[in-house]
Hints:
Elements: E1 6-8, H1 21-29, H2 38-42, H3 71-83, E2 91-93, E3 103-112, E4 116-127, E5 130-142, H4 150-172, E6 179-183, H5 186-192, H6 201-213, E7 219-221, H7 229-234, H8 238-241, H9 245-249, H10 270-276, E8 282-286, E9 301-305
Parallel strand pairs: 3-6, 6-7, 8-9
Antiparallel strand pairs: 1-2, 3-4, 4-5
Helix pairs in contact: 4-6
Amino acid sequence: xxxxxxxxxxxxxxxxxxxxxxxxxxxxxxxxxxxxxxxxxxxxxxxxxxxxxxxxxxxxxxxxxxxxxxxxxxxxxxxxxxxxxxxxxxxxxxxxxxxxxxxxxxxxxxxxxxxxxxxxxxxxxxxxxxxxxxxxxxxxxxxxxxxxxxxxxxxxxxxxxxxxxxxxxxxxxxxxxxxxxxxxxxxxxxxxxxxxxxxxxxxxxxxxxxxxxxxxxxxxxxxxxxxxxxxxxxxxxxxxxxxxxxxxxxxxxxxxxxxxxxxxxxxxxxxxxxxxxxxxxxxxxxxxxxxxxxxxxxxxxxxxxx
Length: 306
């Protein structure tokens, strides 16, 4: 493939020996990564930033902004920067295989971990009897400083995917029936398919936003091993990124004429569902006030007193 048909990734310039917290955050933010997972995907559990302590008022509790980093963290940065040279070998095709007369589908995935949640969208095309799938829009967010549960972070990832998929759908003018959204968490699937008023405020607000941008019928279940967003939540090293076919093209079944989508899974952690949903209301009212029951949402049991 000719060079003009691809987009490359330029690794960051080497940093000075006196590396501070301010410079450390500036390095990833100063780089441009076209349709790539950026640093949030490249960061794995051993990334230098994960070694910096957090606190409620600042991301750095023991290290000032302009103080040199400790030797232990500086060594991790040196090892990490040497691995970044592998990014020069990555070539991203400019053409995604889409044309007005071909069959096009959008497939989106999301995932979350304790440090980051992310979403990624692929364009699946069918031209001359051949299916192809290419990444077109990844996005990631750092998890909030305030400790929260993984199911709630996964719901944040679902909101991120809903916004990203809705934007891509509008840009390519693709009908909703050709938009498929995937997740490996059955808890989020349950929330997306239920009425927001049945959940607590945190869950209800995000479910309402998801349902405003997408349809519950668009959401499906996929096993964790075939979820490309897992690459973003867990992290990939630069050396592994080039050969990560799951990240660049999505699961292998996107390249085949699959007849049946992976079925929805059953909810295993019922305790999480019960904690995040409102408890049912038991109403005991006189018969002459029976009309009041119509204003009580999710009243599963009703008894009319004679």
